[in-house]
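Structure request: Venom dipeptidyl peptidase 4, Trichonephila inaurata madagascariensis.
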Amino acid sequence: MFYMPQFSSLTKPRPLTTNGENDVILNGVPDWVYEEEILGANNAIWWSDDGTKIAYACFNDSAVDFINLPKYGDYHDVTNLYPQFRRFRYPKAGRNNPTVKLWVIDLTRMDYAKTEIVPPEDYKGNAHIEIVPPDDYKGKYVH
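Returned structure:
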């Protein structure tokens, strides 16, 4: 994830995360199961109302199995008459789901300090995160 405090030709985006890895660690972008079944959205980034903080989910799919599914092209394109196979992480029933952590970044600090939002003891080990409150993340965790 990157952040640009201002848009200008002199401003360069600054990295907010550095641990992303294709098909393994996804920051602010849900994996398949979270996008389709839980969040119903293709992003997992939430801004505070005043724009000084950003919360995001970090998805770790390293233990999730791969599946190959056909991807069909446009039937008008003669080079796409046969499907191609797309490989992606897909948790089946009884297999490993991704693990998820919630983080909040304070954009008012020069170092963009990150704080992990740790779930209360009675929520630890639950299968998934459903929503994040839009503001005042400190001490809040919703599963």
